[in-house]
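Hello Y.,

Per our agreement to keep a running log of every chain we model this quarter, I'm adding this entry. I've kept the format consistent with earlier entries: sequence first, then predicted structure.
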Amino acid sequence: MMNGMTREKIAISLPEEQVAAARLAVAEGRSASVSAYISEALARRTAEEDMAEIIAEIYAQTSEPTMEERAWARRVLGIQP
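Predicted structure for the entry above:
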């Protein structure tokens, strides 16, 4: 989590399973708090959306990758086909 950021307290409603997963992460020491767990998840989501925009811009400036290029990228990233 980024330190020095202004924080705002909000109330949200989540499915019980998500709350349980956040609490388990805290209990197992994988997150400092439920708030930190949710903040980290939101940061990942923002990063994924930013990356999707960058990829869309690249595709707009170039051609769609070939199947060979996609296979290479999957191998490099360790993603199953």
